[in-house]
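A note from the maintainers: we've had questions about how concatenated examples are separated. There is no special marker in the raw files; a new sequence line simply starts the next protein. For clarity in this README we add a label.
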Amino acid sequence: MTKPDSTPGSALPFCLVGETGPSLFGLTTADRTRRLMARAGAGRELTVDQASAQAGPVLVVRADAAIDQPLIPLLLSSNRLVLVGEGVDGDVPLAMQVPGPSAATACDVLLGRADSIGGETLDRRKPEDLKADFWKALRKRETPYAFAVSAGNAKAVEWRMFMGTYKGATDLVTKHVWPVPAFHATRYLAPRGITPNMVTTVAAICTVLAFWLFLKGHFATGLVFAWAMTFLDTVDGKLARTTLTSSKWGDVFDHGIDLVHPPFWYIAWALGLGAAGFSWDAVTFWWVIGAILGGYVIQRLFEGIAIKWLGLEIHIWRPVDTLFRQVTARRNPNLVLLTASLLVGRPDWGLIAVAIWTVLCLVLHGLQLMQALAAKRRLGQLTSWMTAR
């Protein structure tokens, strides 16, 4: 016997058994599992024979399994747990952690050739039994998925995987308009080697073009590029998560653009009104722009205060806060107002509407923050409604 290759939950080795499933977003199920294991800090991949020679624990996973990211740490830290997922013909065991000498028998259990290991009753759990519904990184509450993938369910699994990459608290356009077209775009780009950073670069070009066109008073064309940018902003994140290729630089690149560009669009729109025949006097210009920019900055400060002092994102405290996030004065809801104003031939009204909505949202966010601070003083700690069971 060799010494254990790892300790549970840290560098636990793993082995893949059976045949790999179809490609999902350009990755076979086996390669997807390998990337998930690397991200979770698992140890090296072993063959069944190598695993059987281990004195310590090993995680055995079906090669055709598609397992949601939040479940991987649980599998790496839970001895004798058998993860049960969905297959075309019903529930099937997908993964289990066992002592190395039991790896071959675990392989038989996962592939349907045995029901137990040494006569022991196995702890079979579905994802909904594992209390992993809250994914803090994506600010959402959702039962993780686990599938045995075959040609019969591959597309349905891709759709479930794709929707699983969405944040729980986001704006109404991202949540209700972009999912279907973004799914098809992501599904097309992933197997062709298009990286998320490439998509973000195109989005950045659209951002600059929208700014320049707004500045010249070409609002209709500018909105085409602005909406294209928001669509690509959805696609790059989904592409990164479905292909497991997100990076620190990509995150900074994407979120940096998101944070900086909206104020420049509003200023360009205001300056472009003159070229479109809707000139403002200096007082009106500064009142409107001041309200938009001031409200934008202060709302961002409120969000930072909530994270630092309350220990959670303010948009996931209560269900009403998550609902309000869909329409709060951020880029996409504001673009809806600007687009509507252009459709009625009054682009100046759109910017005034953005200013008014920004101020109203600022007041509401201020009340929201005061309520949260008061609740923390009373309760000692706040928790998101998404963590409740």
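[label: protein 2]
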Amino acid sequence: MAAGLAENISRSQVSPRSVALWWLGQAGFAMKTPTGEVVLVDPYLSDSCQRVHGLKRLSLPPFGPDEARADWLLFTHEHTDHLDPDTVAPVAGNCPNCRLAGPAGCCEPLAALGIAPERFTLLAANAKHDFPGFSVETVPADHGASAPSALSLLLEVQGLRLLFTGDTSLRPDLLKPLLGRRIDLLVACINGGYGNMGHLDAARLVQAVRPRSALPCHFWTFAEGGAGDPWSFIQACRSLCPETTPLLLKPGEPFLLAAP
């Protein structure tokens, strides 16, 4: 576990026309903008899936929920490994100015945690929201009947575009509103279980989107539901879309995305 990482994220400074990113394990990421906002996307920093669903966590998060600090919590959907009650509650409590945003499926679990409605922004599909330091544009994701309001999120920071697929099958048709634009980083699930893309489908999505860089996530957290194969994703990206740079981060490792 990387001691002090949460504090380092809070203290770090990001140059203009760049954005800093840290993988938190599973589908979770910390993002910091040049204007200082810390955004956590789908942070799963606990072992609540074992408590709630009996799914034991196999890889540790880079820091615990009580250490996390954020200005925004963004969710692609309401499943426990994305909207983690054991992460959301302490972050919301320790950061009284933190705001939260996600699709309709997130409303009930957030209300159960006591999150005041005025702290939450509902993200509808095919909509754009402007927040301090960044914007979020949404398209539907296909994660089946268990998360019908699931979204993919396009975050834009000073002209840089980061597309988080969330949990979804291969549905490039749903991304049509975003295709044709320059995407600087595509973050794709690759676990291949519960209806999600595996490494080859994720590489095919990279081929359709043609981002500058591509990063796999949602692997090696649970034994159940598909383990994911990040190295095969890297190789498939190099074969199918050689103009894209495939990346691989370990939990807690920083990545600075700069303007081309």
